[in-house]
Amino acid sequence: MLEIRNLHVAIEDGSKKILNGLDLTIHNGEVAAIMGPNGSGKSTLSYVIAGKPDYEILDGEILLDGQNLLDMEPDARAAAGVFLAFQYPLEIPGVATMTFLKAAMNAQSRARGEGELKTPDFMRRVKVGADKLGIPQEMLRRGLNVGFSGGEKKRMEILQMALLEPSIGILDETDSGLDIDALKIVSEGVNALRSADRSFLVITHYQRLLNYIVPDTVHVMSKGRIVKTGGKELALELEANGYADYVSDVAA
Amino acid sequence: MAMPITSQTLRREDHLMASVTPLKTSVELALIAQGASVPALRQPAFERFAAAGLPHRRIEAYHYTDLRALLKDAPPLAKAGALAPSASVWDELDAFIVTIVDGHPTWAQSDELAGVSISLKSDAPDDGLAADSVFPKDGDPVVALNAAFVDHTLHLAVAGGVVIDKPIHLRIVTTGAVSAYGRVVVEIADGAKLTLIETHEGAAGALANSVVEIVVGDDSHFDHMRINLVDPQATLLTTLGGRMGARSTVTSGNFVTGSALSRHQVFLRFEGEGSNATISGASLLKDRQHVDTTLVVDHAVPECVSREHFAHVLDDEATGVFQGKIIVRPHAQQTDGKMMSRAVLLHDGATMNNKPELEIFADDVQCGHGATVGALDDDLLFYLRARGLPKAEAEALMLQAFVGEALEMIPHDGVRETLEAMTEAWLKARG
After folding, report:
1. Domains in chain A, ordered, with CATH?
2. Alpha-carbon distances, residue A249 vs A226, A230, A244, B396 (angstroms)
3. Which of A73, B72, B83, B315 maximizes the CB count within 10 A of its CB?
């Protein structure tokens, strides 16, 4: 279970406050969607959960199964079960995707006090995961994300999530830059990972993604807070009416 | 200005101390004193060195590597007879070994290298004065010093059309706190192929100065590697001078983790059309190491391609210097030259001096250069850490990739893999 309580966050030099007392609880097995206008702090929230160092935490806590993530380094958070699928996955020239995947999986195993994967097991898991997402083996030999299209990068993020088996997967605008076919592949990849002990936080501008990844709860975010919570029908309402109501509510 | 020293004063040792001015440093005086033993044949080179002294910051080519200030000691000239240490990290290479121990070349008599003749000559080495010399015409002091003190020149000649598959491992070793000079001339006749792996090992306090000259014929192929693994308290000065015939290919891959102070020079000239040169290097430096790479690629004829890629990783108080110059002569149309120098600073105390230069006199060419100095990319680091890699491991992976870009230009698989493993070990030792 992920519990965020009264989270106040500014960018590092303190010049601008982005999250203003955000509360959010996501239960095990739940798929929660966060929607909201540009600049409402959605991406910041995802970075703060994952531990990006550019932010100053002014108040509040983020608990994953009772552990306070804010006390942990980003790699420790990953080993504890946090996975952030980046909106803009980074390219790492010179690091073969396979090498990277193995390093990440082994680092997490070590951090959890488990043994490293045997190479044949690792190869088999990668192959199965890649096949499901339509990722050719040739891509796995190339530098991580180097020369990949937007859709390929997003699929690679989902493959990483499948291999790292997080307890909470955060998808930061995973639908941006995807055509409809890629959106379906990525969504199917996510849906295949849904389980009773894994939850998701899906951040998106548009309702379209939620036709494919159907959420249990929808939260509207504005000016750094959750201003409305509802079921999946809330996403349809937002699609029809826009965010104007919520933006003005908070400003008042 | 120091007063020039004439040959008369130098010939009479008793006169020497009286004739030098106090402006010479103690190291220069020691080097000049050593010059008393230089035979007449090599006196001109010695006199050139003695007149100019060690290069300092006001000499442009040595602005960032002021040898007058940085060179703290001129250890005594090495004597013959020392043996090379038997074990080498390169033992697994299937190579024909030629050693130069304390300046003295030795090799096994063998018919393994049919088509290569190996010999010693004692003529005066090129110090930049020869009409067709590739060394700087105004006299490079490091080359002049080498030309003055080198005892015998080792000649390796590959006959025309002969492809030598077995690499020659030129193992240059300095066994103690001595000064040692080595000179190798490699002649590769038309249509021949040779791989030369030049490795440097040196003891603490050693001052080693070696020059490799290559003459690459038409349609021939030469792969060269130069690896500096000398003691962290040693000084190493190396120079590669090369002339390339038509449709020839040269690669030179450089790697440095050793030495307190070193300078690695490359002077390469295209003399025949349609040729291709790839020069790459990686330097991994820490503590107070000072390592200089100086490169001049001279496109003297049309339609040649050169690629230069150098990577520096600098920790602690280390200093890196990259000076790279591509010259395109007036008739060298369709030249394609690209040079890149990239440096990562891992510590506030580290310094990188980048000096890329293009000197283009032709109007139909494609040339470019780039130079970057920076820290590791924070966003990339976060991406790796968000996947579970601890900070040190994430940094090591990024640096391995950074260095790998330069290493992957080395065509010899065994050497490249060994250097990748050395890079990994260096990064691991950083902790």
Report:
1. 29-51+72-251 (3.40.50.300)
2. 12, 17, 9, 49
3. B315
